[in-house]
């Protein structure tokens, strides 16, 4: 098919030649019909060429599209089976890039693969015809072409090197942005934004530096591309007329060879490009040796050194041990997630897995629990009841139809954990691997769940259950206990056996289980501890006078229902917070948390173009347009000169003034090339300028955006702005503008030339222009909308993909890989629905526009035939050879208009996100608090109310309270009472609706956010680490000396771990701190707090992921190091706050009780009942 197209390309110059049109004009006696026939033939040829070419493109594009879909599918399937070590070597960002950008490259290549054989063919045919016309002098022109090839390929090689480098910077920038957006709340709480902003801008600076270099190269290659045909023509003609005086350059020779040289231009330039594209795709294949990453097989890691473990079916086995002793690794090994060095792991039956950090999909709550199982209402209700989710459903806005945001953003930590557990229970599997599911919930909820779900009488009785836990109180009820120490099993057996063996475990239980009896409602005979422990607490009724003594004692006994020796946390987080958004009363049940991404409709507003022009700088823009006019003037000049030259009279078989003719022709041509060079230089600089400005504005705004924006916007959507849209502005828009201006001015000059040579043509121009305009508007409108739909339907593919990658182990455990692959394929199909019409609309356009171009050729020829008596051959040659070029430039002009309109949308999208509302200024000049503020650490809430976002209910309602400097305040309350909200208010993550907070008498609403946030310290509930060195994670501004950092690490009990690493403080944390255990990450957060050491410390149940002993150490550290500071603790383990100055009980956003722990217990209120549940009263 392509072959037919090639042969048609050559029929043009031949019709033009072989005395055909030009000799017809020269021959004044030829019959008129002959001329009309020639014109008609030219037209028919052109139409056929159009039809065939577009048929070919249609096949190419559809094949390309299929290829892209296939590649995306393969990558998705692969990501579900790669091993963890392989996953570490490529970040989610890189894989998503592979899926979006690189799959596209394959597709682009498909269109041009045919060039590999057709380009040499075209070159050969063109040369053959040229030889017939000009004889051996053609070789001079060919020599020039051949010389240009190494020049072009050198540029191509260099450009590719730059591309690789730039991709590297881009990857690292996107990866960093991904982490920043993931941990944006932490950055805000620590006031660390400037440090991270600098990092991004640093990478961006390097990226733009590389872009600039490749822009210089590109303008060189544009120069070569524009000047090549001209240089070739120049040398050929010069040689032709100089070799022999008898060689006469007449219109026929000159214009036929010009047409042929123009045909040559395309294959000569495309060939190196296609080759470089193939090389690039090969390079992608190498980079993405994603394919070579090893597949999963059941394995077991180093961490679990040598383990022999047989779990009988139907048993409940508890796994206990210190932080980092390999409990989670054991569970992972059973799932086949670890690397197996030796040995066997066999699991019989289906598996349900509850990970330590719950993985929640962006779907409704019900879908998260059903997880693809068939709905069974009765069973579903039982599961909700057992997992204590009924009460939560009452407060969620849409009940179980509430849409959960990405990563479960609008559920509290405990709710997420319970949903994750409910999913496991509903799945009705044979084996349950529960990695510390009780850590994130309150003690009474933990007890409920243990009794109703996990325990001997729970829903799961008779199933095999492996429970990783820290809760001592549950141990008497399990069948077996496995104690892990440093990845080895140190003891195993029933609770009774272990106590009898009297080893480390028994010792530990004695220390930590004093309150064991209180915890159990009914006396437990199993609990040997109860006899051996001096249980004063049991006998002693709580009377106001002795309560003090006892409380003291209990707090030492650190328990919240006890815990287990080594680290496993049952009660890890004893209640649950993390409410990124506290539950709110039901509103409209279908209210979506995450709004669907909007698509702009209609034409792109002119303001968007103007914004881009402003970013480029208006002066530069004008200069560029002016230069283009000059370039086209020079080009027309050169061709008019040539046409004039061909008409020079022939005297005695020779032409005169050849030297002068050649000189002027050369000067005009080179001038044209130079102007292009300057022009593309200027444009490139302007484009890079614009890219810098737009990215900086976007970044600046995103760091200043309030947290509520991040709660309702999926990260994928923001990342899309930083990757796809910035890429468009960096690399797509400038060349598009270049092409657009080029084609626009070429089309314009064609019209001018044709009208100048055959004035009659002006008559046809208007109808043709109208036709063209309609086709163009129709196409642009359709194509733009299709492009928008396509890009909106593309984001879900990527966000689903990154969700899958993060939950891969859960998906595999539940054997849901196939259905996830189906979901991904479905999303791909959705995307194709708008992609395929895009391809077809391009073909539609091509045929219509080329038809207009072909009409221009027809009329130019017709009018030449009609007016042959008044025309000279040179002018006809000129006008027809211009007309032949116009088809291409008209077609490209529409394409470019459309490309430009589609791509300028990126500016619109980036503008939209650079103008979202911002939070208060970081620093307010003249309002900065004194250097040592807050020196006393006094807090005062005055009639304070707050809500999460506009339109939601108040979370805190009219709080009034005063905290004196140095007081230790415990904050307790059921889930959703507003505990976390209160801490967020201190940092002004949430802004007051009414009322105010004063710290040391300064109203916090009047000072800059960074002034405020940098003077408070928080240990947040979710420990967030960023990839980079440990040092950077502790001190991103390099404010502290190494001694201070080591001191902080020592106090946070990390010194041993860090000093055992070869790189010490430069230990590389992976993305999200994946290479540290959750407990260790929490300790890093503690070290951050110790470094900052401000007068006010806020603990958001920071000890949740830590075993009891470490917890005691931390509590000690906090008590000693922050002795004179005001400490606010959101507590789930009530024992940690029993010796605090006062306890604040929140209920539904108001203060229910606020007094010393002793008097609250005496008054038998809410606090008393909570203490009773925890066995402290």
Describe the structure.
By secondary structure, this protein is α/β, with parallel strands linked by helices. 60% of the residues lie in helices and 8% in strands. The protein has 40 helices and 18 strands. The strands form four sheets. It has a six-stranded mixed sheet with strand order 2-3-4-1-5-6, with helices on both faces. The N and C termini lie far apart (88 Å).
Would you tell me the structural class of the helices and strands?
A: alpha/beta
The geometry reads as elongated
- Major sheet size, sense and barrel closure: 6 strands, mixed
Strand order of the largest sheet: 2-3-4-1-5-6
Q: Got a strand count?
A: 18
| Amount of helix | 55-70%
Average pLDDT, rounded to a whole number, is 76
Q: Termini, distance in Å? A: 88 Å
- The number of helical segments is 40
Unreliable stretches: 293-306, 514-591
Strand share of the residues? 5-15%
Using only C-alpha atoms, the radius of gyration works out to: 38 Å
Tell me the layout of helices and strands:
Blueprint (H helix, E strand, L loop, with lengths): L1 H15 L4 H6 L5 H48 L4 H6 L2 H21 L2 H20 L3 H45 L1 H7 L2 H51 L7 H37 L28 E6 L5 H9 L15 E4 L10 H6 L6 H10 L3 H6 L17 H15 L3 E5 L7 H12 L9 E5 L11 E6 L2 E6 L1 H7 L2 H9 L3 H4 L8 H5 L3 H4 L4 H13 L49 H11 L1 H29 L11 H47 L2 H6 L2 H43 L4 H45 L1 H6 L3 H50 L6 H42 L24 E9 L6 E10 L4 E5 L6 H8 L5 E8 L2 E2 L5 H5 L2 E4 L8 E2 H5 L7 H10 L3 H5 L8 E2 L8 H15 L3 E5 L7 H14 L4 E5 L11 E6 L2 E6 L1 H6 L3 H8 L4
Parallel strand pairs: 1-4, 1-5, 2-3, 3-4, 9-16, 9-17, 12-15, 15-16
Antiparallel strand pairs: 5-6, 7-8, 7-10, 10-11, 13-14, 17-18
Helix pairs in contact: 1-3, 1-6, 1-10, 3-5, 3-30, 5-7, 5-10, 5-28, 6-10, 7-9, 7-10, 7-27, 9-10, 9-25, 10-31, 17-18, 23-25, 23-31, 24-25, 24-27, 24-31, 25-27, 25-31, 27-28, 27-31, 28-30, 28-31, 30-31, 35-37
